[in-house]
Each structure stands twice: as C-alpha cells, then as structure tokens.
Amino acid sequence: MDHDLAIRIDRSARTPVTSQIAAAIGAAIHDGRLAPGARLPSWHDLAAQLGVARGTVRAAYDSLRDQQLVVTAGAAGTRVARQPVPARTAPAGERPAAAPARRVAPVPFQVGVPGQDVFPFKTWSRIMGRAARTAAALPLGYPDPRGEPVLRAAIAAYLGIARGIACHPSQVFVANGYAAALGLALRALRLEGRSAWVEDPGYTSARDVLMQYGVTPAPVPVDAEGLDVAAGMARTRGAALAVVTPGQQAPLGMTMSLARRHALLDWAAAHDAWIVEDDYLGELQLQGRATPALAARDHSGRVLHVGTFSKTISPALRVAFLVVPPALAPLVADVADACAAAPAPAIQFAIEEFLRDGHYLRHLRHMKRVYGERRAALCACLRGLGLPHAEAGLSVLLPLPDGVDDAALAARARTAGLAPSPLSWWRAQRDAGPGGLLLGVTNVPPAQAQAACTLLAGLLRDAMPVPPAAAGR
Description:
Elements: H1 2-5, H2 17-31, H3 43-50, H4 54-66, E1 70-72, E2 78-80, H5 121-136, H6 149-162, E3 172-175, H7 177-189, E4 195-200, H8 204-212, E5 216-223, E6 226-227, H9 229-235, E7 241-244, H10 258-270, E8 274-278, E9 303-308, E10 320-323, H11 329-339, H12 345-356, H13 359-384, E11 390-392, E12 395-399, H14 406-415, E13 421-422, E14 436-440, H15 446-463, H16 468-472
Parallel strand pairs: 4-5, 4-7, 7-8, 8-9
Antiparallel strand pairs: 1-2, 3-10, 5-6, 9-10, 11-12, 12-14, 13-14
Helix pairs in contact: 2-4, 3-4, 5-12, 6-12, 7-8, 7-11, 13-15
C-alpha cells in the first residue's frame, strides 16, 4: 500500500507529518491510483507501516474527509469518495488533454459549470416530470433525428429575441452536445483534407473534433478585438473554415469587435469559406445587453451557429443546437437522418417548456446579476491580496510570474480543493505564451471568495521560483 500511495515521510521537512500523509493520499486519488470506492488502510495498519502514531493517521484521514475526498463508513472502514476525480496533469512536453465531463460537484474556480445554487431546481423538476409523461405517451416509433419540432421552433423563437438571428425551425438541428453539433456541421460541409482557423488560445476540444473529421486546425492569434483576421489570412490563405467564439472569446472573454466581424464575414464570402460560430457564453455577457450573434449579420449564408444549454442549464443535459443557412438545411437534414441522433424526447420537451414559458430568459437575467456580483467580489479579494488580474467573461484571469508552471500549479490547487484552469491548456502549443490561471466565478459566492483566494495565493507563493541569491544562502 505504501508503494501504491507513494507516501514518503520526511521528518526533517517543515510540513507536518499529518499534512504529508494527507497530501500523498490526495495525490493518489486525483491521479487515479486510488479508484472511487477503494478502501484505505485502517489507522492502525497505516500507522504501523509508516512508523507514526495512529492519531497522526486519523488526523490525516479527517483532513481528507473535510476535502470530501474520502468517506467513513463505520465497520466498512474509510473509502475513497465515490465520485470521479480529475485526470492527472500531463507530464512536461505533452499537450494536456481535455478533461472529460464528469458527474462531480463543482468546486471553487471551476470553469464552464453553472452556479449550483442559482438554478431553479423546483421549477425544473416539475417540468421534467411533465415532459417524461408526455414522452411516455408518444406513439412507439423513431424520433425525428433533427430534434423534436416543438423544441426546434422554441429555439428559433428564442434566437430571434435574444441573439438577433432570424431563422426558421427547419434551419435548427438538435444534437447531443457541442461536439456532436460541430460534427454534424463538418459532415455536411465535407471539408476533409482542408484547414480551419481556430482561435489561439481557444477551445481545445474544438481542435480535437476538427482533427477527428480530417480537418487541420490552423491556430490564429486573438487580441482585444477577438480573432485577428489579417493574421489568419497571412498565415493560412487556403483555409476553408473558421471556428470562432465572438460573443465571449473562450477563454479570454473579449467580445469580437464590429470591424473584425465584418472582416471575417467578408473573408468567408470572398473565399467561399464557412464560419462556425460557437456562441460560447454569448447570452451571458455580464455588462449591458448581449451583443447580437455573428449569424445575425450574415447576409451571404456562410455562418453556422452552434449553441448549447450546458452553461445555462446543465452540462448533464448534453443538448446543443446547430443553426444553418437556409441553403444548407436540406443537406444537413440528410446527414442528421443518416448518422445523427438527437437527445431523448423527454429532455427536449423539458427544455421546450422552459423556453416557451419564459423560465429560461428569467433564469438568464438572474444568472447575470449573481455572476456579476461574484466576479466583482472575486476581483476585490484578488486586489486586496495584491494579485494582478483581468476580467475574462465568467472567469478572472490571474497572470503568473515567469518560472511558474500553470499546469503544475493548477494540479496542486486541485489537491487543495480548488479547480482553476491553466491557460496553457487552451493554447495550441502549451509553451507559446506566459502562464496564467482562469478562475471561474460561477460557483464562488462572495462569502467564500476570500478564503478561496487566500488559499490560492498561498499555493502561488509556494510555487514561486527561489531567487538565485536566496538559493545560495
């Protein structure tokens, strides 16, 4: 067990032995060496193995329990909590892989997960019950692969009101999550062997999906105005597609400027190219009215719009939608009929009612107010600690000093119960720019912000490189 847990006691270290044991076991849980439900040694057995007092092991187990990493079960002993844990950090030199979605309670600073205390669960539960009964009463048969007609109509109506997109329900297709919606678009466009502009830094999973469909991602830098269209044209002249997040750039949060939107649309029209608009957090801009979607300005039929309900309702729904230009709708319908399956009808009926009865727009308004308060509180705490930072949509970007590995620091933060996202994960090449941490604000209530920021500041101090003069003393 000592080999499995890799517990190494250093009695000369300033870190208490209790903390060393807890940290070693916590690392084994996060790395996956200890699976959910695995039983830990008894206090007596582990104390004897390590040569420490039983009270020391008990205190370490208590610390792990407080972090919700283990649970005590009486005679059944102490076991690893039955929830998946983040994958290990990729070794230096490897491009960190995207962490797969997991059914686990969000922790402070986690990016891309809605606030757990903001969602109207009672209303949603009632709607889900009605939707399940409606679905159960349907005639036995195959559902529409394009999505339930009532949901497609509700999405079209919502997009006209909230995102400025004038579309017919026949242009709307429902899919199992963002990757499926993007895959549906790529199948229809048949761009195998071509290249596609992608934002750098940008959404890593989008690059992965492109490669799965034989499209080569061509990283294009972003600045304060969004994707640099001129740089894209200079670097990759033959690109057939651009995948962008103009509403709130993922991950830096800026909104694409009007000049850049026109430049991108002009490029697509002039080069017979396509644009996939990933409306990442587009409707959750925290200041003022949400900027209309890029598709709202598309007069040449070159923009395919992708949206999801993951950031606004729940990632567990796995429901996304693709809106295509009218000329593409028949082709996409054929592709959907052949190789795409929409989500279960009950889920679709629930979302349709949530949209139709106004719950969704009220929920968005409530989220914007709460998230704005949480971002302001988080920034105030960082200022009080003397940590430079910048607003980044529903996150706050914490730039890191030279010499601090953001992926390694993020891994240590996860062990401490925090979940910042390393900026390097979003880059096409991990070491292509300075490191940073993205701090999600959605699950950090103002009352918890100070403690979370103080803990992160301590981890940052520990990660700072030792000056040469100090190291030589």
